[in-house]
TrEMBL record, chain A:
Annotated source species: Xanthobacter autotrophicus
Topology relative to the membrane: Multi-pass membrane protein
Entries under InterPro entries matching the protein: CidB/LrgB (IPR007300)
One GO cellular component term noted in the UniProt record for this chain: membrane
PROSITE patterns (UniProt xref): PROKAR_LIPOPROTEIN
Name the UniProt record assigns to this protein: LrgB family protein
UniProtKB/TrEMBL annotation, chain B:
Pfam family membership, one: LrgA
Location (main, coarse): membrane
Segments traversing the membrane: 12-31, 37-58, 70-89, 95-121
Keywords, in A-Z order: Cell membrane, Membrane, Transmembrane, Transmembrane helix
Protein name: CidA/LrgA family protein
InterPro entries: LrgA/CidA, NTF2-like_dom_sf
CC annotations in GO: plasma membrane
Membrane topology, record value: Multi-pass membrane protein
Species annotation: Xanthobacter autotrophicus
Cell compartment(s), UniProt: Cell membrane
PANTHER family listed in its UniProt record: HOLIN-LIKE PROTEIN CIDA, HOLIN-LIKE PROTEIN CIDA-RELATED
Cell cycle recorded as keyword: no
Phylogenetic placement of the source organism: Bacteria, Pseudomonadati, Pseudomonadota, Alphaproteobacteria, Hyphomicrobiales
Length: 231, 140
C-alpha cells in the first residue's frame, strides 16, 4: 500500500499531523520542556517510520508540502512586526546591535565548541548556522560547505533547547526590557523561540520575530565572508 | 454593483481564516517568483514578508484582512518544522557519542547566545534610555 505515492503522501501527512495534534494535547496537559511538540512529534513519527522501514527520502516526498507551509508562515510575521512598528522605530539600533552580537556568538561558539570536542569539519560547518530559522540556515550551510539537511536537524534541536532553556536564562538575568526578553528568544531559538516568546507577551513575541528575521538576513549576507574564513 | 461585490468579498475575507491563509500563501508565491527571477540570495518567504510590510505601511491593506490567518500560521508553525527533523532517519551515525557531543555544542552554544544577546540588548537599552533623558522613560 505504501508503494503507491498518493497513498504514501496521505499516510505520512496524516501520521505527522496526527502525532502533532496528540503532542499538542500532551503539551497542554503537562507543561514541561520534554512535552514540547517539537520533541514529541518527531519521536513519535520516527517510531512509526522505523517500524515500517521507511527512510527519509520516502517520508519527505509525501510531507514536503508541510515544509513549504513555512513560506506563508514567514510572510505571516509581517503582521506582529507591523503592529509593533512604533517600538521598533524607536529601538532599532538596540535590536541591530543585539543581532550583530548574537549572530557572531552563535557562529563562534559553534565553531569553538565543535573544535574543542573534536567533531569533524563538516559537522562543525553544519552546526554554525543553527541559530537562524530553517530556510536561512540551510542556505548558509550550503554556502559555507556544511550539509544542509543536517543543519536543518541542528536548527530544530536548537529550537527545542532554546524554547526550553529560554525562561531559565531569562530568570537568571536581571532583564528590564521586553526588548531584551524578545531578542533572547528570537536570536537563541528562532521560530520555536518566537512561538514561546508570544506566550510570554505580545511585545516579546513581535521583537523575537523581528530579531529572528534580522538574524537570518545578517547570516545570509555574512555567509560569503564566513566561507572565506573557513576555507 | 462592482463596489458592492468588492465589499462583500472583503467581508468574506475578514471572516474566513482559510482565505486569509491563501492570501498569505499568494504573497509567498510572489516572493518565491521574485527570488527565482532576480536570483536574490533570500528565501521567498522573506521577500513576501517585506512586500506585505510595505503594503501595510503604505495603507494598501489593513492588518485585519489577514490577522486571523497569520495568527493560525504562527501558532501552528512548529508542525512545519517536523518533516525536516526526520532527516535524522538517514543519519544513524549521530545516535552515539557524536550525537551527544553535538547536543552539548548546541546546548552550551544556545545558552551563550541567549545570555549574550539579551545582556547586550538590555545594556544598550538602559544606556540609550539614560542618554535620551527622562521624557522617553517608559519606552518598552
Amino acid at each position: 500500500m505504501l508503494r503507491d505515492p498518493l497513498f504514501a503522501a496521505l499516510f505520512w501527512s496524516a501520521v505527522t499531523i496526527g502525532c502533532y495534534a496528540a503532542a499538542r494535547l500532551v503539551a497542554r496537559r503537562w507543561r514541561s520542556w520534554w512535552t514540547s511538540p517539537l520533541l514529541l512529534t518527531p519521536v513519535a513519527v520516527g517510531i512509526v517510520a522505523l517500524s515500517l522501514h521507511t527512510g527519509y527520502a520516502d517520508y519527505i516526498r509525501g510531507t514536503h508540502w508541510l515544509v513549504l507551509m513555512m513560506g506563508p508562515a514567514t510572510v505571516a510575521f509581517a503582521i506582529p512586526i507591523y503592529e509593533q512598528r512604533a517600538l521598533i522605530r524607536r529601538q532599532w539600533p538596540v535590536l541591530l546591535v543585539g543581532v550583530l552580537v548574537g549572530s557572531t556568538l552563535a557562529m563562534s561558539t559553534a565553531f569553538l565548541l565543535a573544535d574543542l570536542l573534536g567533531l569533524s569539519h563538516t559537522l562543525q560547518l553544519s552546526l554554525m548556522p543553527r541559530s537562524t530559522s530553517t530556510p536561512f540556515a540551510m542556505s548558509v550551510s550550503s554556502d559555507i560547505g556544511g550539509l544542509p539537511d543536517l543543519t536543518a536537524v541542528f536548527v530544530i534541536v536548537t529550537g527545542i533547547c532554546g524554547a526550553a532553556l529560554g525562561e531559565l536564562v531569562m530568570k537568571l538575568m536581571p532583564l528590564r526590557s521586553s526588548l531584551a526578553r524578545g531578542a533572547l528568544f528570537g536570536m537563541g531559538a528562532h521560530g520555536a523561540g518566537v512561538a514561546r516568546a508570544h506566550q510570554i507577551g505580545g511585545e516579546e513575541g513581535s521583537i523575537a520575530g523581528l530579531v529572528m528575521v534580522l538574524a537570518g538576513l545578517f547570516n545570509v549576507l555574512m555567509a560569503p565572508v564566513v566561507a572565506a574564513l573557513m576555507a | 454593483m462592482l463596489r458592492n461585490m468588492l465589499r462583500s468579498m472583503g467581508v468574506t475575507l475578514h471572516r474566513s481564516m482559510i482565505l486569509q491563509i491563501a492570501v498569505l500563501a499568494g504573497f509567498w508565491a510572489v516572493g518565491e517568483a521574485t527570488v527565482r527571477l532576480t536570483h536574490l540570495p533570500l528565501p521567498g518567504g522573506i521577500v513576501g514578508m517585506v512586500v506585505v510590510l510595505t503594503l501595510l505601511g503604505t495603507g494598501h491593506i489593513r492588518p485585519a484582512v489577514v490577522r486571523r490567518g497569520a495568527g493560525w500560521l504562527l501558532a501552528e508553525m512548529l508542525l512545519f518544522f517536523v518533516p525536516a527533523v526526520m532527516a535524522i532517519l538517514d543519519h544513524g551515525e549521530l545516535m552515539g557519542l557524536v550525537g551527544l557531543k553535538i547536543a552539548a555544542v548546541i546546548l552550551a552554544g544556545t545558552v551563550m547566545v541567549m545570555g549574550g544577546t539579551a545582556l547586550t540588548v538590555d545594556l544598550c537599552y538602559r544606556w540609550r534610555m539614560r542618554a535620551s533623558a527622562p521624557e522617553a522613560g517608559h519606552a518598552a
